[in-house]
Amino acid sequence: MAKNTLPSRFRKVDVDEFDENKFVEEHDEATEQPGPDTGEVDNLIRQYPMAAVVAFHVALRNPPINSKNPVIKEKAQAVVLRVLTSFKSSDIEPAVKSLDSNGIDLLMKYVYKGFEKPSENSSAVLLQWHEKAFAVGGLGSIVRVMTSRKTI
Amino acid sequence: MHFVQMKTKIALCPNNHDVHIYKKEGNGWTKTQVLKEHNGQVTGIDWAPESNRIVTCGTDRNAYVWTLKGDVWKPTLVILRINRAARCVKWSPKENKFAVGSGSRLISVCYFEQENDWWVCKHIKKPIRSTILCLDWHPNNILLAAGSCDFKCRIFSAYIKEVEEKPAPTPWGSKMPFGEVMFESTGTAGWVHGVCFSESGNRVAWASHDSTVAVAEGGKTAVITSLSSETLPLLCVTFITENSLVAAGHDCYPALFVYDGEKGTLTFGGKLDVPKQSAQKGLTARERFQNLDKKATSDTKEAVLESLHKNSISQISILQGGKAKCAKFCTTGMDGGMAIWDVKTLESAMKDLKIV
Which family does it belong to (chain A) (predicted)? Predict the structure, then answer.
């Protein structure tokens, strides 16, 4: 086999960084949200089924949309997934109905994010939530997940 | 397919390098002329009714202004000075200028220079960061709304001192030097596919790829109201009264939206295409089983679109009545079809529909 003896450091240069026409996202002035409060959510899950819907709403509060910190985003995703899996199938629909249109869009975002990294039973649960959220939000809510540049 | 309609004539491009002109004869349309000059697909056509000139733009980075000499349309090349495809073109209300949106991330505003007998253009570049998809002129002939792939709808001043007087103040602002940004949208994401000024010019509506439609009202600070819909993204939007919008897109039917300036709300007013109920035929047991085997469902609904248009609607044009009291509008789609809708008939056919 031929061995490369010439300098090849140039191959590690990211040429896209030097593109003067590169689209740079404008910095959003909004404050960074810290993600839902794990402690509060845990407490409420333990009180299932009474506080289930409350846990649900708390988990959807403060989505880490403007954050560039992947740790915060991972944590938020884990919290939401825990709440979603703790629900009984029959309780999903009323919980979804209690959300407003922004809530539905946010729920859809978490569902699709959950699909990206499936764990044991997560996809089956997420599919149930997806079906109920789709019934309310329609194709528009899915389109907004795909087109939104503010990822959770 | 792009098209423009005058009272009895239509200019359209069947997705190739040519423009076909049709004339209405009785109940049908006959092709009268074919305009061949573009070297690339024609992406925009606009017909100026008063001066009877057609402007076309295409992926060959050129625009041509066509004037009728006898029975033949003669083209005049307009140098746009762009290095990407032209995407859309619109004559200004007074027909002394036209604007071309392109993939070069700028708008070319063209006007005729008498002494050189030649169309000249000026560029609006800042702060556009991506392709311009759609344009609409304000009735004052100066302000221009542009929807772009950089997720923004903006209103620019396209004031050309060589051809017009300084404009009077409008709700969008009073100082309007060429290229000034009078308004930039916030709150919606997604490419802006369609943009439209209301008849008065005080409101502008736009449809974005995130399945939203929004209206902004000019003022000291512009007030933006948007609606997230449950449908697929809309591609085109137009005002039919000062408060009502008709929009259509990938769902293949036009829909009504109502704007209430006082309450600050934008609501869905109803689908305007209610397909006739086709007779439901019963399924035999064999057919049920076949459906189950083929489609994993024994649902009797056929996988056929029941709407009039069988593919996305890409353009809506007002035919009669203007944007304040539209009586007829026309939709054209990617199915190559053109449908004319009568507002009065729609109002009486759909009992909960109210056009305010």
Answer: Belongs to the ARPC5 family.
Nearest by CB: A147 against B150, B189, B231:
B189
Are the C-beta atoms of residues B340 and B328 closer than 8 Å to each other?
Answer: yes
Q: State how far the Cα of A50 lies from the Cα of A112, in Å rounded to an integer.
A: 27
Task: Name the closest residue on chain B to residue A140, using Cα atoms.
Answer: B230
Question: Closest chain A residue to B228 measured between Cα atoms?
Answer: A140
- Quick check: A23 and B209 CB within 8 A? no
Residue to substitute from B210, B225, B257, B271, interface A, most A β-carbons within 10 A: B210
Is the minimum CB–CB distance between A66 and chain B shorter than 8 Å? no
Residues of A with Cβ-Cβ distance to B265 under 8 angstroms: none
For residues B260 and B267, give the distance between their C-alpha atoms in angstroms, rounded to a whole number.
Answer: 8
Paired with B3 in beta bridges are: B12
**Of A136, A138, A147, which has the smallest distance from its Cβ to B190's Cβ?**
A147
Closest-CA residue to B229 (of B243, B245, B208, B202): B208
ipTM of predicted assembly, 2 dp: 0.84
The pTM assigned to this predicted structure is 0.88
CA distances from B124 to B89, B146, B192, B292 (A): 14, 11, 18, 57
Six token digits for residue A147: 């087109």
Residue B147 Cα, gap to closest chain A Cα (Å): 16
Neighbours of B173 (CB within 10 A): 17
Cβ-defined contact of B210 to A150 (cutoff 8 Å): no
Residue indicated by tokens 């994993």: B296
Q: CB-based contact (8 Å) between A148 and chain B?
A: yes
pLDDT tens digits for range B291-333: 777 776 666 555 667 889 999 999 999 988 999 999 999 999 9
Task: For residues B140 and B134, give the distance between their C-alpha atoms in angstroms, rounded to a whole number.
Answer: 19
Helix, coil or strand: residue B290: helix
Question: Could you say which DSSP state residue B160 is in?
Answer: -
B124 strand-pairing partners: B107
Whole-angstrom distance, CA of residue B318 vs CA of residue B5? 9
A125 SS3 class = helix
